[in-house]
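For reproducibility, we list the full input for the magnesium ion complex.
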Amino acid sequence: TVGAIGYGVYEIYNKRHPLEQKPFDPKKRTVVVLGSGWGAVSFLKSINTDDYNVMVVSPRNYFLFTPLLPSCTVGTIELRSIMEPIRFITQHKSRNVKFYESECTDIDPESKTIRITDVSDIKGSVSNTTIPYDYLVMAIGADNQTFGMAGVREFACFLKEVWDAQKIRTRLMDCVESAGFAKQAPEEVNRLLHMVVVGGGPTGVEYAAELHDFLKDDLEVWYPELADKFRITLVEALPNVLPMFSSQLIQYTESTFKQNKIEVLTKTMVKEVADKEIKVMDANKNLVSIPYGLLVWATGNCPRPLARKLMARLKESQTSPRGVLVDDYMRVAGAPDVYAIGDCTFSKYAPTAQVATQQGLYLASVFESLARIEEGQNKKITPFEYSHQGSLAYIGSDKAIADLPFLNGNVSVGGVATYVFWRSVYISNMFSFRNRFLVVGDWMKSKVFGRDVSR
Ligand code: FAD
Ligand code: MG
Ligand code: MG
Ligand code: MG
Ligand code: MG
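The corresponding predicted structure, in tokenized form, follows.
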């Protein structure tokens, strides 16, 4: 505790008095990092800038703590509390880290250059340029999987970025207020208050859980005339939700959802998405129409356009359409001096922050070794090894589930104690003292005053 407070004070001081940093050194190699998410930030936190010039390119000038994003869709936590400006993160480095808020649109491994485009509504005189690199680290994450289904991008909400959470929150309140509109038809009220979530992975489950809490704790209080009309449905194509958890925890989740009146439709495939309804093929192979007010789409990842472009360029070595193929040292197959980590890669691990973080740390240690080898030292670079720390998910009404392999084989726990553990794990994994402070503040605020029901 004393250490944490001490560090907090140090951090506050630093925010007000940024450290003096060395400038770029033309004699050093330049590492360009693409992205400001889990992979990129864990790499940036541990790369030694005495050895390299480091430059970051990302369309977002902040890091986003994704595990708490579902909480932001209902206002349990405010978005800004889980965002951390990238400059706050890189100010701790010995050498200045250059940041360009822009999107990388092309990678040319032959000339070792990238194309970048300013992401801005108010562009300056230069909005496109080419940057050379010595080493490139791709940590661009992934796109939302839509299976090429028409209507998903147009009518559904994703849950990956800040703007997605904002859109969900606004649309949810819009549905509620419209349902309460004078003389609204009863079937329209039912439709507007039907919240449908597609995808039974952790994101879909946690979103449904947060939504349930919001309905119970707040909406039913403020909209008593609508209280018995709210409905949540979770649609999943597989036979059960949360396939990465043990069968016992899956059952626990499904029975908790049942108690909480969240309807779970497994073995159900979405076939069509329209503005007011989806058509699904149910477990008995019948085509059924499900009217909705809010549709949240969380069916996993697919490669981003930039990754697809690079994979097409390197098609001899890039043989999987599912992501950038890397070797055990995180080197991109077919592109010397290009590395890739996190969700943009095709790997044997699940696309999680846990994996991206470990890969980022690992890659920073590889770069450390490369610098020592260059100085003539004898260093051996070992392949990346993933160490699974466990899986956690929030399932609503103050309950969470955890699969923890480090406690004697495979311990599965669920319940309120797990929830307390869940919160403390997130708090202690939050990147900065500032974020911790803000998140705890938000939790207390929503406990004391309830969640904000304004649009
Ligand atoms: P990201 O963190 O997505 O970062 C990608 C970065 O690249 C972003 O900054 C983006 O702006 C940038 N970028 C995109 N395109 C370009 C481009 N063309 N040029 C440059 N930069 C670009 N994982 C867990 O382990 N535990 C959890 O509890 C958990 N909960 C989650 C909850 C939600 C709602 C979501 C969406 C994900 C969750 N995850 C969780 C998964 C985790 O967030 C991802 O696995 C992780 O973000 C992957 O890290 P990454 O660095 O590969 O990608
Ligand atoms: Mg990243
Ligand atoms: Mg992220
Ligand atoms: Mg910009
Ligand atoms: Mg109005």
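Residues 89 and 359 are 18 Å apart (CA to CA). The first strand starts at residue 29 and ends at 34. Both points were considered when choosing residues for closer inspection.
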